[in-house]
User: Fold this.
Amino acid sequence: MKLAEALIERADLQKRVEQLKQRMLNYAKVQEGETPPEDPKELGKELLLDVNRLNTLVKQISRTNHETNYDEKWTLGDALIERDMIGKKREIYSDLAAEASLKQDRYSRTEIKYITPFNVRDLQKKVDELSKRYREVDTRIQELNWRTDLKDQA
Assistant:
């Protein structure tokens, strides 16, 4: 199985686990004398099987990320962290640029005038640079996900 396939399965399992949990919670209490449409005990068995599969899969994905080279200095795990931090920086600069570029209308000279200490053009340029870097790192990660075989659990 390729790493990308395992990531898709992990996402599906995470959704299924949450859905099974909700279905079980829906039938945690039923009115005396009534039978729930689904057997909560059977749902619990399914839930445990899925959680165990998810546990195995997450460990294999983690092992694969930490044993797969992204480039000469990073593992795939390092690249994932780098991509997330680039995304966080991009979000900060983008929010700052949006806030700094808000125009405030004044209706009289007595109203407070606000100015920004930031150069919005420079902030937007930084957002664009970070977006480009994010795309480059993400594209390489996606490529590796489809080329890399999932490692066995230790």
Observations:
- DSSP finds four helices and no strands in the chain.
- The chain has one domain: 3-147.
